Design the sequence.
């Protein structure tokens, strides 16, 4: 199971599709807000990876990470349209973040990530 | 004058002589040099008997005789004939060994006394006797030789003495026997001597020759022999006179020694001496006399002595020096007053004596002893004697002066007369009154007798006795006696007092006391009389002035040592000696007072005796002579100073002879005088000496004194100098100073300060130039002036405020600029503390600065401070404080220079504010660019994603194609946005410094393109040569690398079988050379130049935006690097990038 956390519905749709193209067996849970993703985790849902957007209303990506890293160890991949190097650098300070992907998420990249996490 | 004298006084020779001319048949008399008759022969006696029968003056029997005789005495002729009335009188000069005499022979013209004998007969008779007399009494040795027999027939006593042979032996010797056999040149003495005598006989003239005679004991004596044939008819007789030269030699050396002694005596400056001619004109004066009279030798020479004599003494002088003693006679000695140049009267003893120099010229030598001081003392002594005499006559003591031998009373004072009851005449006329007869037992005489007895026995001669007066009254007397002087014990002074009336005596004692007191008190010399315990008995006014005490004059009866506890031990010792009977004196005794002042004393301490001859105490005369001693000392010091001035090696001196110049200047009258001539004479002056300092100044190497011409070194004209010297010489000014410049041997210009000393007297007509090199002094002075000028300019310059603060932190001075800056005047600022003007927050800092400057920790502090001006406004200043030190390193104050930077500061503040604003704006803009980029990109990403999804759906080919175009267009837009962000960042942001591992870095970039279209076909080879750290801006390098790599990917030639991308990076200390090479589509040649321009696209259907390479170029230039491109269309492209390595430069900086 993969979590997609992005306030952009289209993004979530596209990314879900891309994932299903690479591996149709993977369940994708898409959340339009970070707080919803956290709530799902609280409920006991256990994804294998989480794709996380940065710019979000209410809790943004960083806020999510602050809370998340205290409780969970599931790999997080940042998935943002930001090309600011500072964002990339900042993400690297979180041990739980395993990668920074500049949108769009392409099939090749996704495949590599899934391979890393033995999901193919 | 012709008074007789006893013939007993004549010497033996003369006596013999006289016996000879007793035989002379004419009346003959012998007179001494002064005209006294010494002897008369028998004929003369007979003649006188006839004339008047008794010894009378010759003048009476031959009027004019005395005058004639004196006339002859004064002449120098040997004989003189005088025709007197009836007589011919012949005067002859005869000489004995010691004296000159005159023989006067009287010949009666009528010749009745000669018994008719002819004159010629008489003369031959006369001749023989004269002859004998003269021979016998001549001072030289005389021999008469009978030439025919070659035998001596007569010899005088002098000859006998000279040859040392008895007369009888001598008379029969052969002529040559008395000489050595051979002369020193080997010739026979006998032949030579005979030859000489023969010559004399032939010529009839005196022959003179040097000879040696031989005594029996072998002694050879040098002599001069004069031989002359005698005019006689009795054969050939030759007279030979022999003068003993050995005696002459002795005499010569003696004269020499005397002369030396004379010079020594005369040159000596202790005794004043004068040499005068007979008219009393001074011929020479010795230094002592010059000093005494205060005149130079030049002034004195030629002056009549009379001019120096006190007018009242002139007659005395003339009388005394009218007849001058000479030879061994004792000099006249006379006391006279003479006048010092200043008009001061000097009391002197002048002794005068006449001398004759070898040329026969007579001169007087006068010795003058300055007695002024002694005279003054003697005068005071005379005064005191006078006082004593009055004491003598007024004394309450009866005083008798008696001559024991003659048994007479010489003097008796009124008191003695009174006590004895007799007047002076009675006492002196009647010796018996005092002495009586041996047998008488008169009480009066008993007193005297006892006195005499005691005196003779050397016993204590204090006697108490009773005498009876003529009126029968009885008087008790007490007295003593002592000899008047130690040489003559015959004269005895007896003092006695009437002790019968004690009351009266007491009164008289008081009177005497008062007199003595008065005498001592008014003594001109400080004097005090003490008893044997050194208590004051009498004290003089002068003494009290000299030794002031708290008691003033009221010190009689007080102890000297109590009053003056600090007197030196040696004085006490002297007092003790005086008390033991000695007279002690010291003419110059140095005493250092308690306050350190030096005083010199002349003192004398002597005992005084009570009536009983017991020492009653001492009398001390003491005089302060400090002024005299100091004056003498000062004179010595002056001399030493002058001397040291000359010997001082730091001062150069040149001495030049200037006789002609000085004479010309001093003697020429104003009309004749010419400065040109003086200048000419000046140039002729010859240098006679100079010291090493001169060598140094003139840089003379081996120049000798004769060669040295100082004038040739002088720069410019000498005429001013010479003119001044001439003026000095003409006006008697001895010292003047001048400045001259010279160019020395090393062509170095020196400024000289010259002190010229002109001669004081005529004896030494040399000029001494003292020379000091003042060149360095001058330049240092001008340098000093310059620095002062600079200082002043700085101080008065109106841009910088200057404050002088003393070491107590009070302001001493401020300049005009300060006044303008602060609005305070200098007066208002004086003695204020700079600290008060500072804003409180700067005071602590100020205190620390002052502490550092005062402690010497630092000499210089530069800080910014804020002051409050007079108008209350703030003044921001940059201040520099310098500690001031004097030459000895003493910190005496601080100078602070204040620069007003208020304006500057304000500007700086404004700028900073603006800068911060800009920074903020920049940050906001940055943020904006990111957000904008993000917000722009997000929809594009969405559309792109949808397009990609749509492409997965099954649709017509056409639709698919459109989607593809749509996707391409969106990619381009996305790329463009990214590029804009990169550009924006590069232009705005500062350069970051990151350490870069090139291998890793390149790989990271490549990773981003792994999934690009066709990327898998591209064969990528990376070669990195990095052994040292590399530092640069990572982000910017990423932009560059990204662009280059993306270009390579983008323009890959897919038609080629093996597309490749080669990346090499070579890191050096200074930079990295990065080469990115591909075999892509390449760039056409015409585009190659423009590919780095903004929005330039080489390929019309290019996927690029035309912005990438522009950003690359801009970024590289930010990174201090360069980029180049090589490309061939269809073959490939090669970018060569060079970027600075900041690591090394950073390290270098350290």
Sequence:
């Amino acid at each position: 199971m993969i979590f997609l956390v992005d306030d952009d519905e289209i993004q979530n749709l596209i990314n879900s599709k891309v994932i299903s193209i690479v591996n149709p067996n993977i369940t994708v849970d898409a959340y339009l807000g970070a707080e919803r993703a956290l709530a799902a985790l609280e409920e006991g849902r256990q994804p294998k990876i989480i794709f996380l957007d940065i710019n979000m209303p209410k809790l943004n990506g960083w806020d999510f990470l602050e809370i998340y890293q205290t409780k969970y160890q599931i790999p997080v991949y940042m998935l943002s349209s930001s090309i600011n190097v500072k964002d990339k650098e900042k993400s690297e300070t979180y041990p739980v973040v395993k990668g920074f992907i500049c949108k769009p998420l392409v099939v090749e990249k996704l495949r590599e990530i899934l391979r890393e996490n033995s999901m193919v | 004058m012709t008074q007789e004298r006893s013939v007993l006084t004549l010497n033996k020779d003369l006596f013999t002589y006289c016996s000879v001319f007793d035989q002379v048949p004419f009346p003959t008399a012998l007179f001494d040099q002064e005209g006294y008759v010494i002897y008369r022969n028998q004929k003369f006696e007979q003649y006188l008997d006839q004339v008047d029968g008794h010894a009378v003056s010759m003048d009476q029997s031959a009027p004019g005789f005395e005058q004639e005789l004196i006339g002859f005495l004064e002449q120098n002729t040997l004989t003189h004939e005088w025709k007197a009335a009836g007589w011919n009188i012949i005067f002859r000069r005869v000489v004995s060994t010691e004296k000159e005499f005159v023989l006067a022979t009287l010949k009666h013209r009528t010749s009745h006394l000669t018994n008719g004998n002819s004159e010629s007969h008489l003369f031959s008779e006369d001749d023989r006797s004269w002859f004998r007399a003269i021979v016998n009494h001549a001072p030289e040795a005389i021999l008469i030789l009978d030439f025919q027999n070659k035998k001596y027939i007569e010899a005088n006593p002098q000859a006998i003495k000279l040859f040392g042979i008895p007369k009888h032996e001598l008379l029969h010797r052969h002529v040559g026997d008395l000489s050595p056999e051979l002369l020193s040149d080997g010739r026979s003495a006998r032949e030579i001597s005979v030859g000489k005598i023969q010559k004399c006989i032939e010529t009839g003239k005196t022959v003179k020759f040097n000879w040696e005679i031989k005594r029996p004991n072998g002694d050879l004596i040098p002599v001069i022999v004069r031989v002359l044939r005698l005019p006689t008819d009795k054969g050939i007789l030759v007279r030979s006179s022999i003068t003993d030269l050995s005696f002459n030699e002795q005499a010569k050396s003696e004269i020499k020694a005397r002369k030396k002694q004379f010079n020594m005596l005369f040159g000596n400056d202790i005794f004043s001496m004068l040499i005068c001619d007979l008219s009393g004109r001074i011929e020479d004066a010795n230094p002592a006399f010059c000093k005494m009279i205060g005149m130079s030798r030049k002034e004195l020479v030629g002056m009549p002595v009379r001019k120096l004599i006190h007018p009242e003494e002139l007659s005395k002088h003339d009388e005394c020096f009218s007849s001058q003693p000479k030879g061994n006679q004792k000099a006249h000695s006379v006391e006279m007053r003479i006048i010092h140049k200043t008009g001061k009267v000097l009391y002197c003893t002048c002794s005068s004596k006449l001398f004759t120099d070898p040329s026969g010229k007579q001169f007087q030598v006068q010795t003058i002893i300055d007695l002024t001081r002694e005279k003054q003392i003697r005068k005071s002594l005379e005064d005191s004697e006078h006082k004593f005499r009055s004491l003598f006559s007024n004394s309450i003591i009866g005083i008798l002066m008696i001559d024991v031998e003659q048994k007479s009373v010489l003097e008796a004072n009124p008191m003695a007369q009174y006590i004895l009851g007799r007047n002076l005449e009675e006492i002196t006329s009647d010796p018996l009154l005092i002495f009586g007869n041996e047998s008488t037992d008169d009480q009066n005489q008993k007193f005297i007798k006892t006195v005499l007895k005691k005196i003779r026995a050397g016993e204590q001669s204090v006697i108490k006795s009773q005498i009876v007066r003529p009126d029968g009254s009885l008087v008790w007397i007490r007295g003593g006696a002592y000899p008047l002087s130690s040489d003559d014990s015959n004269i005895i002074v007896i003092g006695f007092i009437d002790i019968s009336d004690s009351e009266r005596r007491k009164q008289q004692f008081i009177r005497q006391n008062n007199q003595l007191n008065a005498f001592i008190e008014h003594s001109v010399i400080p004097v005090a009389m003490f008893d044997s315990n050194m208590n004051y008995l009498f004290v003089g006014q002068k003494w009290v002035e000299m030794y002031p005490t708290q008691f003033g004059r009221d010190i009689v009866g007080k102890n000297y040592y109590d009053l003056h506890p600090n007197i030196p031990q040696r004085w006490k010792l002297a007092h003790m000696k005086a008390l033991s009977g000695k007279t002690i004196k010291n003419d110059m005794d140095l005493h250092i007072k308690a306050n350190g002042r030096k005083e010199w004393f002349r003192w004398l301490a002597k005992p005084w005796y009570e009536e009983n001859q017991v020492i009653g105490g001492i009398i001390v005369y003491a005089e302060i002579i400090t002024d005299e001693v100091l004056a003498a000392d000062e004179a010595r010091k002056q001399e030493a100073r002058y001397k040291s001035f000359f010997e001082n090696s730091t001062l150069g001196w040149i001495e030049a002879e200037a006789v002609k110049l000085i004479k010309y200047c001093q003697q020429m009258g104003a009309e004749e005088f010419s400065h040109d001539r003086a200048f000419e004479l000046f140039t002729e002056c010859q240098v006679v000496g100079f010291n090493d300092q001169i060598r140094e100044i003139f840089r003379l190497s081996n120049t000798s004194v004769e060669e040295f011409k100082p004038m040739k070194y002088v720069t410019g004209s000498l005429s001013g100098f010479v003119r001044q010297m001439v003026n000095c010489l003409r006006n008697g000014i001895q010292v003047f100073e001048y400045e001259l410049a010279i160019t020395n041997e090393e062509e170095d210009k020196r400024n000289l300060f010259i002190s010229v000393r002109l001669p004081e007297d005529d004896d030494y007509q040399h000029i001494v130039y003292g020379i000091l090199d003042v060149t360095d002094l001058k330049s240092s002075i001008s340098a000093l002036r310059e620095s002062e000028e600079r200082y002043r300019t700085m101080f008065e310059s109106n841009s910088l405020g200057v404050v002088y603060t003393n070491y107590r932190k009070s302001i001493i001075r401020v300049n005009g600029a300060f006044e303008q800056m602060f609005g305070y005047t200098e007066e208002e600022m004086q003695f204020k503390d700079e600290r008060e003007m500072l804003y409180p927050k700067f005071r602590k800092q100020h205190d620390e600065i002052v502490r550092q400057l005062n402690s010497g920790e630092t000499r210089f502090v530069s800080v910014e401070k804020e002051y409050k001006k007079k108008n209350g406004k703030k003044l921001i200043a940059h201040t520099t404080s310098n500690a001031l030190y004097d030459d000895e390193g003493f910190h005496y104050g601080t100078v602070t220079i204040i620069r007003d930077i208020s304006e500057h500061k304000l500007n700086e503040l404004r700028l900073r504010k603006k800068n911060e604003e800009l920074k903020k704006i920049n940050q906001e803009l940055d943020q904006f660019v990111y957000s904008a980029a993000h917000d722009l990109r997000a929809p594009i990403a969405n559309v792109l994603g949808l397009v990609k999804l749509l492409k997965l759906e099954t649709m017509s080919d056409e639709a698919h194609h459109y989607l593809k175009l749509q996707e391409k267009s969106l990619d381009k837009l996305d790329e463009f946005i990214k590029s804009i962000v990169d550009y924006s960042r590069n232009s705005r942001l500062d350069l970051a410094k990151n350490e870069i591992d090139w291998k890793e870095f390149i790989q990271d970039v490549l990773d981003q393109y792994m999934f690009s279209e066709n990327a898998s076909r591209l064969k990528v080879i990376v070669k990195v040569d990095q052994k040292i750290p590399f530092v640069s801006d990572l982000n910017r390098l990423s932009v560059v690398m990204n662009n280059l790599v993306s270009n390579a990917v983008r323009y890959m030639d897919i038609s080629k079988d093996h597309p490749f991308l080669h990346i090499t990076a070579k890191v050096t200390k200074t930079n990295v050379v990065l080469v990115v090479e591909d075999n892509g589509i390449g760039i056409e040649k015409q585009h190659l130049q423009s590919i780095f321009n903004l929005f330039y696209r080489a390929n019309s259907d290019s996927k690029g935006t035309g912005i990438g390479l522009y950003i690359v170029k801009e970024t590289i230039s930010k990174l201090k690097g360069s980029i180049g491109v090589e490309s061939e269309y269809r073959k490939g492209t090669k970018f060569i990038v060079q970027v600075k390595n900041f690591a090394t430069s950073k390290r270098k900086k350290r």
